[in-house]
Protein: tRNA (guanine-N(7)-)-methyltransferase
Organism: Eiseniibacteriota bacterium
Amino acid sequence: MSRYRLPAPLEELPFVIRPDSETPPFDWETVFGRSAPVELEIGSGKGLFLASAGAQYPDRSFLGVERAGKYFRRAVVRIHGAGLENVRIIRTDAFDLLERWIPPGSVAVAHVYFPDPWPKKRHAKRRLLQGELFRGIHKALCPDGVFCLGSDVRPYFDESVAEILGSGQFTQIEWPDDSPDRIATSYAIKYEKEGRGLNYAKFRRLDTK
Ligand SMILES: C[S@@+](CC[C@H](N)C(=O)[O-])C[C@H]1O[C@@H](n2cnc3c(N)ncnc32)[C@H](O)[C@@H]1O
């Protein structure tokens, strides 16, 4: 039996959000049952960030999005085990989520950590870090909202930072390595053990027409 067997059918787990094509953009007070700043993690993998951040910041609400069933299940098991009231997760494509269900100007912080680089040209469309994502994050963020990025792949990271800043939609702000909101993800831990360099950047949303 899988170690990551779901604790209950997904429809019985209140922290799993299951919108369909008819679902209107989320009302955060309904989704979280309270009013609090919302943080969005894109590509949540095994859910370590969500569980850690949710426990560390109980006065904030966290939504994770993960496309891959295998990782989504592991995140669901972890979040269930953590018993947190302020964490939600959704299994879908991040681009779809941003387009359909995230109300514009409603997210306080967006996080993207260690997305696969898909270095081959023919796989470029699969990359998370691309203009469409940065525009979607800009639209989702509230005025002065923040975008946190981490990657172990230096060229991918550098290109992304250049594109984000080049868009004129964000400005880079300091993010010292010992900041309390630098929360380890599964891949950060794995890559650090392997001695890979971890690159992080934080941006503040700028108002643009
Ligand atoms: C390398 S893993 C990193 C997971 C986690 N952020 C971490 O640092 O441990 C990248 C994750 O992003 C997810 N992902 C990639 N593209 C996605 C998309 N368009 N929508 C949702 N999830 C996506 C993948 O399925 C994978 O779980």
